[in-house]
Amino acid sequence: MIALDYFYYILPIFIFANVTAFTPGPNNIILSSTAIEHGFYKTIPQIFGIFFGFLSMLTICLFGLGKIFLIYPSLFWLIKILSSIFLLYLAYKIFNSKNFTDSNNYKPFTFFQIYFFQIINPKGVMVQITAASLFIQGTFTYQLEVFLIFICFAFSTITSGITWALIGHGLKKFIHDQKKIILFNKVMAIALVTCIVLIIV
After folding, report:
1. Is the dihedral of CA 24, 53, 129, 142 positive or negative?
2. Domain extents for the chain?
3. Which residues, 6 or more positions from 5, have their beta carbon under 8 angstroms from its beta carbon?
4. What is the DSSP string of 79-121?
């Protein structure tokens, strides 16, 4: 009976964590773009930056600070504006990148850059606030529920990051000529702009 209680509590969290982690978003597009431009190796600091950055913000929300965004929704709009400006700049750099070694146009994010980007990543912040609001239910002790939520998101964050980086790395093998490279970069830039539109709306 206790095992079933754990199962029924964890299942919706696990599904929510994986659906939100694997669906396209700024983090995933950045990882794929970096992998196809610079190879999988260069995405490793980004994967860990996203992993630790997202989980740091999730922990903050789970311990109650996420309620600030519910009390002051204007703060979330500020995050949307800041992230949109940053992502538009990034989309512009990717759009104008001409080849895999065009480092002047698109340099891969460092660990700390992508880590601190999680503070203004509106998709991530919204997921974290939603998780804290929906899944702290009082079914178990507060500390245990925080731990179970944390574990589910830790799994989904690292696996989705690796998957999207491998997708980009895999595509690199099939894109060799200049026209295909330019087309891919433009498609990824447009996808990033689409994320911005969905974030604002």
Report:
1. positive
2. 25-98+108-200
3. 139, 140
4. HHHHHHHHHHHHHHHHHT--STT-TTT-PPPPHHHHHHHTTS-
> Residue 36 corresponds to which tokens in the numbers above?
């196809």
Place of tokens 């891919």: 184
Alpha carbons 109 and 127: distance in angstroms, whole number = 22
- Compute the distance between CA of residue 176 and CA of residue 75 in angstroms, rounded to an integer: 44
Alpha-carbon span 183 to 160, nearest angstrom: 24
Rounded CA separation 133/68 (Å)? 12
Tokens of 201: 């709306």
Least confident of 22-31, 68-77, 182-191: 68-77
More confident: 117 or 80: 117
Can you tell me whether residue 138 is helix, strand or coil?
Answer: coil
